[in-house]
Amino acid sequence: MTVDYINSKILLLYMEEIKAQRDLDDQEKSSYDELKKINIKNNLEKPIDFKTLSPILSKAWPTTIKKIANPIDSFKNLDKKDLIVLFFKVDSLLNVRKSEISSDKAFIKLKKEILGENSKAEVSKEVQNEIEARSTNQVVSSRSIETPDQKSSNSWSYYLMIPILLFMLSTLFFGFKYNTVRKDLKEQKKKYSILENDYDQNDNKLKQKQNEIDELVNSIKYQSNTHQVTSNQNLRPDPIVEERPTEVSFPVEEPKNSPTILYAGKPSVDHFLTNISNEPLNNTTIFKLVISPNNEHLAEFEVILVDNFMTRNITNQPDDYLYRVCNNENFNKEFKREIITTKKGKAELIDGNWTVKEENKATIKFQ
Length: 367
Hints:
The chain crosses the membrane at residues 156-176. With 367 residues, the protein is α+β, with helices and mostly antiparallel strands. It has helices at residues 2-21, 26-39, 50-57, 62-73, 83-96, 105-115, 125-143, 147-234, 308-316, 318-321, and strands at residues 261-264, 272-273, 287-291, 298-303, 326-328, 339-343, 345-350, 353-355, 362-366.
């Protein structure tokens, strides 16, 4: 009973000491005011039970409950005649907590109230030795009040260290593997890029040679036609002596001009052929247009594969590059080597744009 009375009084003194050092927050102040109000009715005959104090202070003052109230409550196992030892223990506990309550007038008054006016009387040597022994044990005991929590904390720390170390080791291992794989991947990409560039260069050279051959064949055909026309012009019928000679003329076929050829790139969503040029352009050209010699506003067009870059784009995204102006006989998944035009499309020059109507689309096939 006496311990509960002392516990309540000392808790109030301890809170007042903290209140003098700093401002209390709302929750701390509310608990402090409630304890102060309860202490008005606190007396030795009917002291405030520790079980009543604990719920009031546990949320706002958990450290105070743990380091002050719980240790004092544990002194209930002392005999009633050990009141001097009780206060000696309380003094030791407050010293450990670096509190100056022991020298406070209210604490001295409380001690006199419990021990009486003879509290400062001389104590026998036996009692002094017992007090010193108990005080030593109390300091150790008060310091070890937190030992279960500390042990629990240390135990948790020990068990937590194992997964943390495993995590760190696995992170280092996978980090090393990742860097190695990433380095190898960069090397492979570099080699692939070099091979791709070489392939594109060789492919361009091959197409240039093919164009030169086509031009040579066209030139030979043109010269052959010109020679035939010249021969026909030189032919004349043999004169007939007995009849009046008549002049016979033969139609001379004038050499036709070479058709105008244009090249176009990716069609627009409005079915216009864009990027019109006189020569095929790498990374751009998709279609070849042959303008009608009878109508310069009308042209036939077909698919032409200029370079590997555009071939990849065309086959991977036919909806954007082909199907806006072409119908397909099969799917792009069947592409292996080339795209052929099975039916040439027709484009009309409308408002300066080569436009392909739905009924004039070309027909293509992947193979």
